[in-house]
Amino acid sequence: MANLEKRELLYEGKAKKVYLTSEDDKLIQEFKDDATAFDGMKKGTIGNKGEINNAISSYLFEYLENYHIPTHFIEKISSNEMVVKKLQIIPIEVVMRNVAAGSLCTRYKIPEATIMEYPILEYYLKNDELHDPMINEYHAYAFGHATPDEVRAINRIASKVNAILKFFFDRRNLILVDFKLEFGKRNNEIYLADEISPDTCRIWDKKTHKKLDKDRFRHDMGGVEKAYLELRDRIINA
Ligand code: ADP
Ligand code: UDP
């Protein structure tokens, strides 16, 4: 990537900036320290989050590539930047759940930490104005976001990612409670995109159930940066 130049800002989101580059098919994702929750109602920063999330996401994408998961990840080029394949993002958030937490508990009145007998896969429309409403695969077809074949590919990748990462975290005495994935298309291929980080996953210590993710920020639990750093070290230096 020695000659890749960062060009104009393509998009600034809540947690990342995305830049065009000197190569048409590559983008640079820059991870910010900004944090938001509850549809952007709660705003703040988490010290060193950009670097921590870039480190964790880069590590996990590379790990998943070893298991033949197609990801957008190309290379980590600085503490808070990675080069990725430019994709046409499918505006659907795919959530996988192994243990009850967050909106699942409120929607279905299930106590937090209830272990699911089978992983749950959910789709939400990526639309802040509508507060990311839950949808099913027929909405995805009807709204023209994905074809049945694409949804099949997404489900297959999401299930495989869950199986791989569940064991990955278990070996580090961590529980992968739930997580959100985004997918994109290029040349009729589906790739895993965006990020996999404590902003987008719930991860607990296996013994104590201590939360090592954005729930600490959402619910003002304190020790947010410390928890993100602990998670990074338990993932990368294991
Ligand atoms: P949000 O848009 O939810 O505020 P971010 O701050 O994380 O999210 O911004 C990153 C944006 O970049 C997201 O909209 C995401 O869908 C998009 N994105 C992630 N990976 C790629 C990619 N490989 N190609 C194009 N866009 C991407
Ligand atoms: N999630 C996310 N972005 C969103 C919504 C959810 O990354 O816009 C992640 C969240 O961090 C958690 C999982 O998806 O790991 C399930 O979130 P849930 O539906 O419980 O919603 P929340 O409680 O975050 O509103």
In the CATH hierarchy, the third-tier topology of the largest domain is known as D-amino Acid Aminotransferase, Chain A, domain 1
CATH class of the largest domain: Alpha Beta
Tally the structural domains. 2
| Global shape | globular
Structural class: alpha+beta
Alpha-carbon Rg, integer:
17 Å
On the 0 to 100 scale, the average pLDDT is: 98
Instruction: Indicate the proportion of strand residues.
Output: 35-45%
Helix content: 25-40%
Number of contiguous helices: 6
Observed structural traits:
single chain; 238 residues; alpha+beta; Phosphorylase Kinase, domain 1; D-amino Acid Aminotransferase, Chain A, domain 1; seven-stranded antiparallel sheet; five-stranded antiparallel sheet; 6 helices; 14 strands; 29% helix; binds adenosine-5'-diphosphate; binds uridine-5'-diphosphate
Sequence-ordered SSE layout with sheet pairings:
Elements: E1 6-12, E2 16-21, E3 26-31, E4 34-37, E5 42-45, H1 49-66, E6 73-78, E7 81-85, E8 88-89, E9 92-99, H2 103-108, E10 115-125, E11 134-135, H3 137-142, H4 148-170, E12 174-186, E13 189-193, E14 201-205, H5 215-218, H6 224-236
Antiparallel strand pairs: 1-2, 2-3, 3-7, 4-5, 6-7, 8-12, 9-10, 9-12, 10-11, 12-13, 12-14
The protein binds adenosine-5'-diphosphate and uridine-5'-diphosphate.
